[in-house]
# Entry
Amino acid sequence: MKYFAPFLLVLGLLVSLPQAQASLATSWTLTNGSCSGCGSYGNVRSFGASTVDGGDVAASAWADTGTGNTLETAELKSWSGGLGITNRSGADGGYPNHAIDNRDNYDAVLFSFDKTVSLDEIVIGWWKDADLSVLAYTGSGTPDLAGQTYAALDDAQNGSMGGWELVGNYFDPQDSSEPGDGKLHYNINSGGISSSYWLVSALNPAFNTPGCSSRAIDCAPGNYLGNDYFKLYALAGTVTTSSGGGGNNTVPAPASLLLLALGLPLLRLSWRGIARHAGVPA
# Structure
């Protein structure tokens, strides 16, 4: 029995260890779901994935309506065309400002997933114009937007320590498509960034390469600002890990592979012992 002990030990650990989740393509429709604190600023709307094990996402609204254009919570509303925002400016509740817009202030939706996700598509269900900016949180811990400015968020663009990375600025119709479903589709995130926290904003000059003047993934020129109004209908992407967190650009190897590598010497010793006991050449 003593020769089987190492084999049984390794086998038991392999069975008991959680396995890394394989990548899972899924989507989140943003027109149904539960709501906490609805009817007030700072409410949170939650939505489930279209696939089993796809996880949930919580959405909250933000705008730069605070002192010094700092960020504070807004009200996230649900319409047939998707999510819209009423911010604290006092003039944001009517048409078309009930959408996500950059008319007077810059509205944004923070999506907090309970898994790590690589988003690759944003679907707009209603729009007048729909140029938008997308960021992913690549810092540590949980991001806190309250009291910050948009300019302080993006590390690469501004040399700050905000922990966010610009995924891209996207323009209609340059980067969008209408495949016949009455909705506007954007393919995003060509770099394959993964995170649990994503920020989708009406096109925002804070996420602009200084001096640029043409529409580009890293450019938000001023002549394209102030006329964007849209509602977020759906998100799609790939779940890359089964737990949430900040940026993660790689898919971790299953722990069982590491354990197997460490356990191979024990298995070899076990086999030699069994073979010697049975009189079989090892």
The first strand starts at residue 24 and ends at 29. The chain has three helices and 14 strands.
